[in-house]
Automatic annotation (TrEMBL):
This is glucan endo-1,3-alpha-glucosidase. Residues 429-563 are annotated as: Disordered. InterPro entries: Glyco_hydro_71. One of its GO terms (molecular function) is glucan endo-1,3-alpha-glucosidase activity. It comes from Botrytis elliptica. It holds the Pfam family Glyco_hydro_71. Residues 440-563 have a biased composition (Low complexity). Belongs to the glycosyl hydrolase 71 family. GO terms for cellular component: mating projection actin fusion focus. Keywords: Glycosidase, Hydrolase, Signal. It comes from the Eukaryota. It catalyses: Endohydrolysis of (1->3)-alpha-D-glucosidic linkages in isolichenin, pseudonigeran and nigeran. GO terms for biological process: fungal-type cell wall disassembly involved in conjugation with cellular fusion.
């Protein structure tokens, strides 16, 4: 979202050179293969070794993911080391990666540095190639010009930057070859929170404005964050199956999953990653596995690549997910307060059945009356009213149990800290779980341990266990009035995937249901308490920009000398584009903006003599930002208007 005037002058000076006029490889939408990537936060894996990268890649390959988009920041000293390890691991495992420059930290003046990275990796065996070009992307970075990078790289480049507004695809002349959207959750733009379900209105606008260029559509299972700088939820309760069904209908050229390991925003689908540092997000991510969402994702990826309208189900499975407390509970020791948007959430638990044949689903949520509904074959997502206590799930067919077990987390009616992350678990047909023992704890929720299920252990508090047990839930009454169901019928496509890393399986866990595992000799069956690592999730994604996906905790820039000015900066939420633009040229008002670096004054873009004002409803902190930006050619419609 920065328009760097020095780039304009450089392009003007060298635009006559013939080698600048080459176009990116053309894309035949009818014949180009489909690829699925996952957004990977490099900024939180400073301590990764080659084996860590290989493990993540093995899990991703097992469900059909083709590559990682490596979100990286310029300020992290370990970025070169970790990129080198990622590319080496990709080469050695047959995986692929590409760099996603995070423009919360990079800026439009970093052309030379970005070109150096592309020269280093564009022809690397681990680099993702698309239609003859090395793929490169961004977080934000809408206005970065790729022409000088393409001209300075000894390999074709296929640039798919993130665009914050689809209208940009219709007028930007930045030598982009496609576009990536971060609008993966129900929103009217920016970080506005609206009720679900999510529509495809943003996707439709991108497809229209791209005029045939490839669209990399976003898919995300959840969004919840609870930092000082950002504290909100998007309404994502059944988003994972809703969104994948949209992808099968839309058939975009490319898909990027948001995210593989962004624990700070609670949309990770990776297993536990013990080599992360903690930035505070362990408060809500530690002990909250999301492995079950990979179960759902796998058959959808296979169907997407096959051009199918529905996924194939070859094994009976169940995935469930839920929050640890009802939304209205007041936590006793949390100065941040509850997240914005919580009032739009439903106090429900969510169950996805992945069935080879029709069956009956029985759910007992805490103190609620057991409910029984008939579900067809295929992928079906059903919600049930949340009850405090144990969560019990059973699938029967022709009167016999097929799947049954308890959720790995009790829902509680008290809490110390707000946590709107989802606990995700799953059941497969290999075993049945007995009821979990009660736990004596004062926290908001209880992680459950049993002899047949292992738990994701928290680094801060261990699950408490006792020797007492409870009886089997009562026989349910048949009812459908308290649940809603969405379905996806099975088809006959199949896919073969690589064997995943060794992983313990269990018959019960909480995770979001929606898809079944496609043909595979060995499959990851993430369970109630089982995570891929013997140690706990120790996540770290310090991101204060939004739509956020920044890489790491930023450090304060050194104190500027009297002869220098701010040359790059950023701001949280809706300020991000304005602050990136204005700070680049020395105007970086403290409060809404934070300066990241100082240096010599960068020439400002030409003055347009157009007065800019904040949108109605925005506070006075936008006055100077909108006035300066609009008068210099950048007037973002999500924050400012022309007078």
């Amino acid at each position: 979202m920065i328009l760097h005037s020095t780039l304009i002058s450089v392009l003007a000076a060298i635009s006559f050179l013939p080698w600048l006029s080459f176009s990116a490889p053309t894309v035949n939408r009818a014949t180009s293969p489909k690829y699925v990537f996952a957004h990977f936060m490099v900024g939180i894996v400073e301590n990764y070794k080659l084996s860590d990268w290989k493990m993540d890649m093995a899990y991703a390959q097992e469900i059909g993911i083709d590559g990682f988009a490596l979100n990286c920041a310029s300020i992290d000293s370990y970025t070169p080391t970790q990129l080198a390890l990622a590319y080496q691991a990709a080469e050695e495992t047959g995986f692929h990666v590409f760099i996603s420059f995070d423009f919360a930290y990079w800026n439009n003046g970093n052309t030379n540095n970005i070109t150096d990275y592309m020269n280093k990796y564009a022809s690397h065996p681990g680099q993702m190639q698309y239609n003859g070009g090395a793929v490169v992307s961004t977080f934000v970075g809408d206005y970065f010009d790729w022409a000088p990078v393409k001209a300075g790289t000894n390999h074709s480049i296929f640039a798919i930057p993130m665009m914050q507004d689809p209208i940009e695809a219709s007028y930007l002349s930045t030598s982009f070859d496609g576009a990536f959207s971060w609008l993966a959750w129900p929103t009217d733009g920016g970080n506005s929170i609206i009720p679900g379900p999510m529509s495809t209105s943003w996707d439709d606008k991108f497809l229209t404005n791209l005029k045939g260029k490839p669209y990399m559509a976003p898919v995300s299972p959840w969004f919840s964050t609870h930092f000082n700088s950002k504290n909100w939820v998007f309404i994502s309760e059944e988003l994972i199956t809703d969104r994948w069904n949209q992808m099968l209908a839309m058939k975009p050229a490319l898909i990027e999953i948001i995210s593989w390991n962004d624990f700070g925003e609670s949309h990770y689908i990776s297993p536990a990653e013990p080599n992360h540092k903690d930035d505070g997000s362990s408060q809500w991510a530690d002990g909250f596995p999301h492995d079950g969402w990979r179960i759902i994702t796998k058959p959808y990826i296979a169907a997407y690549k096959a051009g199918a309208s529905t996924p194939t189900i070859t094994e009976d499975q169940l995935v469930y997910w839920y929050r640890p407390t009802p939304k209205g509970i007041t936590c006793t020791n949390d100065t941040l307060g509850p997240p914005n948007g919580r009032e739009m959430l439903a106090d429900d638990i969510f169950v996805t059945t992945l069935l080879t044949k029709p069956a009956t689903l029985v759910v007992t949520s805490g103190d609620k009356t057991p409910l029984s509904i008939d579900v067809p074959a295929g992928i079906v997502t059903t919600n049930f009213t949340m009850g405090v206590g144990n969560q019990y799930f059973m699938v029967t067919r022709e009167g016999s149990p097929v799947l049954n077990g308890y959720g790995g987390l009790k829902i509680a009616d008290k809490c110390e800290k707000y946590n709107f992350n989802a606990y995700v678990g799953s059941l497969n047909g290999t075993s049945s779980d007995g009821p979990p023992p009660p736990a004596n704890t004062t926290s908001t929720s209880t992680l459950i341990t049993t002899t047949s299920t292992s738990t994701s252990k928290s680094s801060t508090s261990s699950p408490m266990t006792t020797t007492s047990t409870t009886s089997t839930p009562p026989i349910p009454t048949t009812s459908s009035s308290s649940s809603t169901t969405s379905t996806s019928s099975p088809i006959t496509t199949t896919s073969t995937t690589s064997t995943p890393p060794i992983l313990t399986t269990s018959s019960s866990s909480s995770t979001k249901s929606t898809t079944s595992m496609t043909n595979s000799t060995t499959s990851i069956i993430p369970t109630t308490t089982t995570t891929s690592s013997p140690t706990s999730i120790i996540p770290t994604t310090t991101k204060t920009s939004s739509p956020t996906s920044s890489s790491s905790t930023s450090t304060s820039p050194s104190t500027p000398s009297p002869s220098t000015v701010c040359t790059s900066g950023w701001g949280p939420g809706n300020y991000i584009g304005l602050c990136q633009f204005t700070c680049n040229f020395g105007y970086c008002p403290p409060g809404p903006c934070t300066c990241l670096s100082y240096g010599a004054q960068i020439p400002e873009p030409p003055i347009t003599n157009q007065a800019g004002y904040p949108l109605p409803g925005e506070d006075d902190s936008y006055l100077g930002l909108c006035s300066y930006s609009c008068n210099h050619g950048y007037c973002p419609p999500t924050a400012c208007r022309l007078g």
